[in-house]
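[job 0417] fold request received: Aminotransferase
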Amino acid sequence: MPVPASHNESTELKALDLAHHLPAQADYQLLEDLGGSRIITHAEGCVITDIDGKSLLDGMAGLWCVNVGYGRTELAEVAYQQMLELPYYNTFFKTATEPAIRLAAKIADKMSEGNPDLKHVFFNSSGSEANDTVLRLVRHYWTLKGEPERNVIISRRNAYHGSTVAGMSLGGMSFMHTQGGPLVPGIEHVRQPYMFNEGFGEDPIAFADACVKDIEDRILSVGPDKIAAFIGEPVQGAGGVIIPPETYWPKVEALCRKYGILLICDEVICGFGRLGQWFGHQHYGVKPDIIAMAKGLSSGYLPISAVGVSGAIVEVLKTGGDFVHGYTYSGHPTAAAVALRNIEIMEREDLIARTREVTGPYLAQALQRLAAHPLVGEVRSLGLIGAVEIVAEKGTNTRFKGTEGTAGPLVRDICIKNGLMVRGIRDSIVMCPPLIISEAEIDQLVSTIEASLNEAE
Ligand code: PLP
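[job 0417] inference complete; emitting structure tokens
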């Protein structure tokens, strides 16, 4: 058991945090008012512990990433051995390392389950960097094909593709667009398949058709010969766990094929088992040309991300000389060795099938218990990612206490007080636990949300 820090240590660290550390995605004035961040000092399995000794069930797998759970000694040992052997070398200028090569082959094997032509891998360190790579690669590809004017990428409103300039421009979160612009030009945002908010009470197939029509209308208004690619998360994570109707992705794919547009899936959250398949697009039976992945690739033990690229695209890249793109840490051998072992753990423990056949359905059933709650407008999940929509009036999508966007953070804070780490996104509570979560822990997760909703009433 972790030993809580003494009161003095805790106070000192919080003061240093406030004095020197700028945490990510934070309101710095609010943090100061609150007396600093919650400092996490230890984690094991699905449980995280803070500096004051409070333990919480981690319903978010860190930041949608710790798929194999915390405390895997094996991953620490692999990192240690690799650091002794070769801690770092780059993959620039005709060099490579064994972990990067073996990891690329392993990822190719997993991608081939959905699309046998997806067999090449480009490494980066984060999901945002992966999407920067995607953007450059796609535009470079069309230039090499002799169609440089095909440089517009269609994305969705409320999509999240990262925090770098390219990532946030590709993303569709308008509140991000207002900071640190101007945006990368040539990105069009269309309707998101968010039934509960934008198609409430509609038939799911008709709603999906309307969303796909919005994409087609945009293709036609911009000009089909100017569209390079369509990008989307199979299930939008940070947007609020938006699970599209089952017909949506096959129709998007058909549209891309109709106009010769590349299909890109951002698998940063959905990849590595989250939806009960190695990649989220495999659940929907579509064949993207490019995929971005990160997070679950190493279960967050070390930073690493990758872009999966089809053979057809690589053949075109071969006609262009150097692809002048890459990062110091592309294919970092220690991160790659850890990611490879992480995937081997998932294989050995059959975590993908377990998510699809056991824990995913168990979570879906457990969430149904919340469906009758007076504040709950909808529960939804797929594999081990889910959301609870909070409403003011049952049977409607009117927002809690009439103030849109406040219910999620309010109930999240009560959940945290009650020992559960979840996220509140606008008016929903979202969850994305480690794939090793037990049925008993799923019950604990759902009953803590229920108790917290009761407190919020
Ligand atoms: N793409 C998606 C779908 C994500 O959810 C995220 C992060 O949450 C990113 C990209 C950006 O990844 P990173 O934070 O590693 O840069």
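[job 0417] notes: The first strand starts at residue 40 and ends at 44. The radius of gyration is 22 Å.
[job 0417] exit 0
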